[in-house]
Amino acid sequence: MVVSSRSLSKLFTSTSRRRFCSKAEGLSNAEITKKRNELFGREKARQLALITRVEKIEVEHVGPPENCRLLMNKGLSTPFNCAMHIQENLMSRSVLALVNGQPWDLHRPLEDHCELKFLHFKDEDPALSNKAFWRTGSFLIGYTLERVFKDQHYVQLCSFPRPRVETGSFVYDAHLGISDWTPSQAELQCMSRVPAKLQFEDFKLERLTVDASLASKMFEDNKFKSSQIPFIAAKSKTGHSVTLYRMDDHVDISEGPLIASTALINRFNITAIHDIESEDYGSLKRVQGLSTPKQLPIHFWNYGILCERAAKLNPAPMPAQWNKEAMATRNNA
Amino acid sequence: MLRFGIRNRPRRLSKAMGRKEDGHGTGPPGRLERMTIIVNSLVRHERIEGSHQYMDEARGYTERLLQIAAQGDKNHEAMDVANYWLKDKDLIHKLFKVLVPRYENYTTCATRMWTLPVEYPGGKNKTSILELKGNPWPPVVPNPRNNSKSLINVLLHNAKKDYRSASKDGTPV
Amino acid sequence: MTNLATKCRNVIRLLHRHCAAINESLFSKSNGLHPALALDVAAPPSFKQQPSKPFSLNDLFADNIFWAAVPKKRRSYAKKWTRRFGPDKIRKFMTPRINLVSCLECGTWHERHSICGSCYEKVREETKAMQSSMNPEEFHYNHPRSEVAYVFHGEDANDHPDKYIVEVDKPRPDWWPKHMLTKGHGKYS
């Protein structure tokens, strides 16, 4: 069914929003999070149970400290497990893995014989690590927004744009159930405490590929996500799968690789919340943040300057709904 | 004016100062004798390794020697100083004919020091490498890293760019 | 030393009144002083004047050993154990070393302020090989009076005019930085 953008925008304008507000149904942010987490856990266990026979794959590790060949389990062993066999340093500093030249999450199981390389922030060309870190920053803003308002306001996360480190901040566009709110510095600082504490917890970011139907069920309370899921699924290899990531009990949709664990993060600040107008989704809030990794220390004064820059409106494009025309042009391009 | 920092007092270098058989030290002359040996060695080999304290002391003397020698070999004082500091007389030729022209246009100092690693568990004397810049040997760090693409550097670089373009336009930064 | 002798004499006078006689055979009397405690200065005249005197408390107390430092109190086991196994000794090994980094090229661990030993090892060997390729007589006794250029296998000596050429009997290692092999176009290169 082709949905025109005009009717979509009607769906999401403030007047009609009340019809779809889950608060009316009685579900709070915490309950929704719990539900999603349960569904994720169940699906993960189900997918694990599908592997009845353990097959072995040969993994060739290339890079310091030594080139070696490992015999790992197909569909079960992750690059992190390979690092456990090689050196503790690789475990603690690795951000991503390169499996046959493709960026791969550190906790994503390996599927076939491959060549493995570990990436960290101090590589000669850390572009992939930087992008993954920026993407994770956006993901963590989503985590923050779903927790920090507790049950007072119903938060509906919309989407986040592709990561661009040069802009100086990462972004999540969301519909916070608050009108007429300019956050003060103190409020932003309070909000920042939630993700800032994550550096002391070693929460792994787990990846799971699920069927679009399950994803729709998980995100049925979120009108933005549930409208996006069909298009995301259509873009996938199989045509009907959606990639989900879970950290602690927060689940979200994301395409690219995220960093291995929250222990890699050093500082995290929510720097600003701007009002934006999206054609398709109506008025939203653009929540911006800044973070630096533990492997790259930075002086607080420099970090302050970067925070000031991160508070300026990020020039990323407005969140837009894909329609069949846009998809066609994208596929042809 | 030397182009790097030196200590305002000479190190005592007890091992150099206590060299005679009768148990007495040689004192400051003994220290200077050791310094001349190191400077001589450095001018010949252009890269030497040794105890950090001795290398650091010798570094100042080498720089000063090169500075004085820059006055030219016709200069009486320069030749005297070179004669004292370089025990091997063929090195005096090298000093005036090779090293002085080499460092003529240098805006930085002529020597460089590196710290060598100490084997576990440590507690031993730090050893260092002292080398003259422009030596023909392979560099101590063959492939120094270029960190311009690291996350912090990218963020700071873009912040700088923003600041400069904003201050040019006159917009408030 | 004269000052010390004076002080000794004053104390001896004081003790003379209080000490019992001590067996003089314990001490040989060459010049009134024990050979092991011979001072590297001329003995004070007052001592030399009495070489054949059988015994005197002066001689006894002139010996340095009586002025040696001596423990006043028995060291308690607490103090003893604290000294041997206490924080000052253990702290060095109990505190985690946070200044250790893994070399990004080869993975060897070293302190942050130092260079990687294994990466430098190959540089050191190469330097030695290059140094030994020059005539040792020349290198150690008659150093060339112009800049030296080391020419490896497959390189042209004509690339280095006005330099003393030394031919090295091996190919240039492939880890040699490329920027050092290209000719610069700057003012001074």
TrEMBL record, chain A:
Pfam families: TGS. InterPro entries: Beta-grasp_dom_sf, Pro-tRNA_synthetase, TGS, TGS-like, Thr/Ala-tRNA-synth_IIc_edit. It comes from the Eukaryota. Residues 77-118 form the TGS domain. One of its GO terms (cellular component) is mitochondrion. Gene3D superfamilies: 3.10.20.30, Threonyl-trna Synthetase, Chain A, domain 2 (3.30.980.10). SUPFAM superfamilies: TGS-like (SSF81271), ThrRS/AlaRS common domain (SSF55186). GO terms for molecular function: nucleotide binding; RNA binding. This is TGS domain-containing protein. The lineage of its organism: Eukaryota, Metazoa, Spiralia, Lophotrochozoa, Annelida.
UniProtKB/TrEMBL annotation, chain B:
GO terms for biological process: translation. Residues 1-31 are annotated as: Disordered. Residues 1-14 have a biased composition (Basic residues). The keyword Iron does not apply. GO terms for molecular function: structural constituent of ribosome. The keyword tRNA-binding does not apply. Keywords: Ribonucleoprotein, Ribosomal protein. PANTHER family: LARGE RIBOSOMAL SUBUNIT PROTEIN BL17M (PTHR14413:SF16), RIBOSOMAL PROTEIN L17 (PTHR14413). This is Large ribosomal subunit protein bL17m. The lineage of its organism: Eukaryota, Metazoa, Spiralia, Lophotrochozoa, Annelida.
UniProtKB/TrEMBL annotation, chain C:
It comes from the Eukaryota. The keyword Transit peptide applies. Signal peptide: none annotated. Keywords: Mitochondrion, Ribonucleoprotein, Ribosomal protein, Transit peptide. One of its GO terms (cellular component) is mitochondrial large ribosomal subunit. It is found in: Mitochondrion. InterPro entries: Mitoribosomal_protein_bL32, Ribosomal_bL32, Ribosomal_zn-bd. One of its GO terms (molecular function) is structural constituent of ribosome. The keyword Transit peptide applies. One of its GO terms (biological process) is translation. Pfam families: Ribosomal_L32p. Component of the mitochondrial large ribosomal subunit (mt-LSU). The mitochondrial ribosome (mitoribosome) is a large ribonucleoprotein complex responsible for the synthesis of proteins inside mitochondria. Belongs to the bacterial ribosomal protein bL32 family. This is Large ribosomal subunit protein bL32m.
